[in-house]
Amino acid sequence: MTTDKLNTVVQVAVPIRLRKVLDYQLPEGYSSLAEGTRVRITVKLREMTGIVVGSKKSELPEEGLIRVVRVLDESPCIPPSLLKLLRWSSSYYHHPLGEVIQTALPSILRGDSKIKPDLPFRYYLTSNGAEALNGIPKNATNQRLLLTELSKASPDGLSSSTLSKLAPSSSTKLLRDRGWINVREDSRDFLYVGQEQDSAAIALNQSQRSAVSEISVALQRYQPFLLQGVTGSGKTEIYLELATRVIKTGCQVLLLVPEIALTPQLIGRFKRGLNGKIAVLHSRLSNKDRHIAWWAAREGIADVILGTRSAVFVPLARPGMYIVDEEHDSAYKQQEGFRYNARDLIVKRAQQDDIPAVLGSATPSLESMQNAKIGRYGHLVLRDRARGAMMPKISLLNVKQLPLTFGISSPVLEALRLRLDRGEQSIVYINRRGFAPILWCPKCNWRARCSRCDVYLTLHRPSNQLRCHHCGASNKPSENCPDCKHISLKAVGQGTQRVEETLQKYLPSARIVRFDSDSIGKANVLAERLAQVLEGNVDILVGTQLLAKGHNFPAVTLVCIVDADSGLYSFDFRAVERLYQTLTQVAGRAGRASRSGQVLVQTQYPENSAFSRLMENDFSGFVDFELKQRQLANCPPFVRFVLLRAESVSSDSSIRFVTAAAQLGQQILRKQSSSIRLMDPVPSPMERRSGRYRAQLLVTGCVETALHRFLDNWLNELDKLEIGRRVRWSLDVDPLDIY
Length: 739
Ligand code: ADP
Ligand code: ZN
Ligand code: ZN
Description:
The chain is α/β, with parallel strands linked by helices. The chain folds into five domains: 3-110, 3-Layer(aba) Sandwich (GIY-YIG endonuclease); 121-185; 193-386, Rossmann fold, CATH 3.40.50.300; 393-435 and 494-630, Rossmann fold, CATH 3.40.50; 640-733, Alpha-Beta Plaits. 31% of the residues lie in helices and 23% in strands. A hairpin with a 6-residue loop joins strand 23 (465-467) and strand 24. Helix 1 crosses helix 11 (342-353), helix 7 (206-216) packs parallel to helix 8 and helix 19 (653-671) packs across helix 20 (704-718). The longest helix is centred in the C-terminal third of the chain and has 19 residues, at 653-671. The radius of gyration is 29 Å and the shape is globular. The chain starts with 6 loop residues before the first strand and ends in a 6-residue tail after the last strand. The model has no long low-confidence stretch (mean pLDDT 91). Adenosine-5'-diphosphate binds next to helix 8. One zinc ion (ZN) binds next to loops.
């Protein structure tokens, strides 16, 4: 058969759980379709938007295949370089390509909207309008007002929202019809425009300068860097200087941050110090704003894109550098569906795009530290705080020997009182929200449990509710013990609410503000509270990890850690690493300005070596020790983990599924001799969650290629398992925790 007898078939990735792409006939009038183009197609009679990811010649007669319904894009919505990353992600995380691509698209483009969003307009005066201004009759007040304001405005004109505040839209329309004013689309209304001013310029110190110059040497090629700088060492200033340099070469910078809450401070800093346009991408934006920011990045209009996790997939016209701030943060890992890690993907992306990647943190992940040790990452270290401030002095309080009042020891109370007298601010950190974690009957030992999860319910006040922090269930506690009818149930332990209440009782004059996800639902509430703190209207901040991250509180001189032990003896292999990171981050909030800081850590285990390293500020010592432990225990980063998870409403389906999966896995491994190991299939440590029974199976491997080959084969078999239809199952490659 000659090739011209063959038909061109396009391969389309569709946004459903399907591990293969689907073939379609080209639409009428097309001889090819570029990869990355969105098309409307039907799958089982349902019309949806898919992405062309390839084409091939087929011997099948044309009639054998459904035709593409409609082509949505003139040029590919997903540029080739990004499609390459998405393909890689799909195969690395073993997640269907269609769903991976879906994650990368702003939700508006998952339908059939145009790639280019409708942009806000700006109005300006035409020369006719300028002439007409003098002749406008006195009684035409609205027209007069509009023309006058526009004549006073800069050549950039005024935004439509400004105009609509001045006069009704009918007046604006009238002036447009007469040709006196005109409109143009403008980026000013959706991008932050930085203006480099002398007042914002900070002269970088020696360590900052050498970090910048080492990275700058590699501006045009792939090179990952780990920027390890103690809290307050001025990493943000380094990002800013790097961004400035990259923009000068005509390229764009993508900067990832773990939390939306951190964006305002960063935007502020970049606005003051950058000569360029900044787009912001995060999940709290409206769909429309996200579409616009995505588009501005793709078109190359935005110079710097500041975003959270999913921004790792934003297309860039001219990528120049990727930066991940607080690279150790677990928020970079997507914990459901397509479980990618944005920190890891950005390094892959940098490699594919042949540009540098900078990972910054005061307490880098052990993975990144190991990569730095073996020379895979360039390692830049900032040992001192930028403004010459001392690192805070950390002391341990052995709570085995100290009486506690609802978790607070008297040295903590005294230290808080001292700061209060001196007019300085303090942070009290407790990583548990609510009033008390347990409601308990002293007579029969009953405890309030969630009916749908294997956990205790947390008591919340003032609403007086028992809430499950895992499934969200809530109910009113009864007055009496449900088992023995005893009348006084006891709230045991403490969360942020109880700490706040206790402190208020002992320090009645203190202005206390609580920071946790109950008190701060919305990003703007957090911004307001933070502003209050900066204005000096708060004495004590009581909060969870919301307080730990990145914020700059110059007047805070004391940090108290109510309970440092929760992570110490957990079965999670990352628990100690996380504890160290959190304590360093929280401690790092103290004494960032001229006054030196103090940190008080309440613990029952002061002899634990993690604490002595923390006190000596010896992160390297801690890392060396922990890495040895990980190596001995065969844990990441020395071996790779992949976790198969299953959950189901019936109590035995999940465990039966992972058991069957383990058997299939063993069969494959008998043929593929390698270093891969399958652990025992087990019920998950928290077996029941949201009414579902969960089970899991851990797979470990040393050689990445062998592991992924195994996973491919294994998944092929798992997809066919009958019992698999009765459970929800998923694969988590490089899981953050294994429960
Ligand atoms: P990090 O991100 O490393 O915790 P920041 O970039 O927030 O640190 O800097 C901490 C503080 O030090 C900020 O107030 C910043 O303005 C200031 N700072 C940074 N670099 C310098 C410098 N070279 N000279 C003076 N102040 C600096
Ligand atoms: Zn009882
Ligand atoms: Zn629950």
